[in-house]
Automatic annotation (TrEMBL):
<keyword id="KW-0963">Cytoplasm</keyword>
<dbReference type="InterPro" id="IPR029026">
    <property type="entry name" value="tRNA_m1G_MTases_N"/>
</dbReference>
<comment type="subunit">
    <text>Homodimer.</text>
</comment>
<dbReference type="GO" id="GO:0052906">
    <property type="term" value="F:tRNA (guanine(37)-N1)-methyltransferase activity"/>
</dbReference>
<keyword id="KW-0808">Transferase</keyword>
<feature type="domain" description="tRNA methyltransferase TRMD/TRM10-type">
    <location>
        <begin position="1"/>
        <end position="224"/>
    </location>
</feature>
<dbReference type="GO" id="GO:0002939">
    <property type="term" value="P:tRNA N1-guanine methylation"/>
</dbReference>
<keyword id="KW-0949">S-adenosyl-L-methionine</keyword>
<dbReference type="InterPro" id="IPR016009">
    <property type="entry name" value="tRNA_MeTrfase_TRMD/TRM10"/>
</dbReference>
<dbReference type="InterPro" id="IPR023148">
    <property type="entry name" value="tRNA_m1G_MeTrfase_C_sf"/>
</dbReference>
<dbReference type="GO" id="GO:0005829">
    <property type="term" value="C:cytosol"/>
</dbReference>
<keyword id="KW-0819">tRNA processing</keyword>
<protein>
    <recommendedName>
        <fullName>tRNA (guanine-N(1)-)-methyltransferase</fullName>
        <ecNumber>2.1.1.228</ecNumber>
    </recommendedName>
</protein>
<dbReference type="InterPro" id="IPR029028">
    <property type="entry name" value="Alpha/beta_knot_MTases"/>
</dbReference>
<dbReference type="Pfam" id="PF01746">
    <property type="entry name" value="tRNA_m1G_MT"/>
</dbReference>
<dbReference type="InterPro" id="IPR002649">
    <property type="entry name" value="tRNA_m1G_MeTrfase_TrmD"/>
</dbReference>
<keyword id="KW-0489">Methyltransferase</keyword>
Length: 225
């Protein structure tokens, strides 16, 4: 998989992408991630990429030309399955969407900033719009990092035990069951006996029941789907 990220602040990705799962995925060759500074595609001598909105109003708007140049250049080099835009009014991102995107070959992710991007970008270039929640961030960078992490971690071979990702919350519209490790007794707080029994059938049944109960209590909306 190849992921190209268009951003005004590429340095914001250095931390998330240089540690843990994403770092290992890149080292294994499971994913290639390229960061592109949108300012590099500006024809303005000062590398300006924003301007005042037509019709007035507060805030600045990212211009179409630098973004179009970036997308067109990348699209001339390879075919992209998706050109995504991170925006609070996009489709709510979930585990099912992460699973679908993990099957892609090449993806572009555009990170907005300021008041947003010229709407013609969304009309003529973007194939999908994604939101990580009903709130507004300063830009799309943090949201893009969340999406990349969720997608990359389910790629084959990225996690040592692939069944681990398959039993995460939301994979089957259920929250994950509780997990425990040593010691089995801490200050009188004991691990459920069934987990120490060695009976795989009973353990599976317990986990399934716990997943359902936690979902019913904490996220009943998932059971309505």
């Amino acid at each position: 998989m190849r992921i190209d990220i268009l951003t005004l602040f590429p340095a914001m990705f250095q931390g998330p992408f240089s540690e843990s799962i994403i770092k290992r995925a890149v080292e294994k060759g499971a994913v290639e991630i390229f960061l592109h500074d949108i300012r590099d595609y500006s024809t303005d001598k000062h590398k300006k990429v924003d301007d005042y909105p037509f019709g007035g109003g507060a805030g600045m708007v990212m211009q179409i030309d630098p973004i179009a140049r970036a997308i067109n250049k990348l699209s001339e080099e390879r075919t992209y399955d998706h050109i995504l835009f991170m925006t609070p009014d996009g489709r709510r991102f979930d585990q099912q969407e992460a699973n679908k995107l993990s099957l892609s070959g090449n993806i572009i992710i555009l990170c907005g900033h300021y008041k947003g991007v010229d709407h013609r970008v969304r009309e003529h270039f973007i194939t999908g719009e994604i939101s990580v929640g009903d709130f507004v961030l300063s830009g799309g960078e943090l949201a893009a990092a969340v999406v990349v992490d969720a997608v990359v971690r389910v790629l084959p071979g990225v996690i040592g035990d692939e069944t681990s990702a398959l039993t995460d919350s939301f994979q089957d519209n259920l929250l994950a069951p509780p997990v425990y490790t040593r010691p089995s007794d801490y200050n009188g707080w004991k691990v459920p006996e069934v987990l120490l029994s060695g009976n795989d059938k009973l353990i599976d049944e317990w986990r399934e029941q716990q997943a359902f109960e936690r979902t019913r209590k904490l996220r009943p909306d998932l059971l309505d789907d």
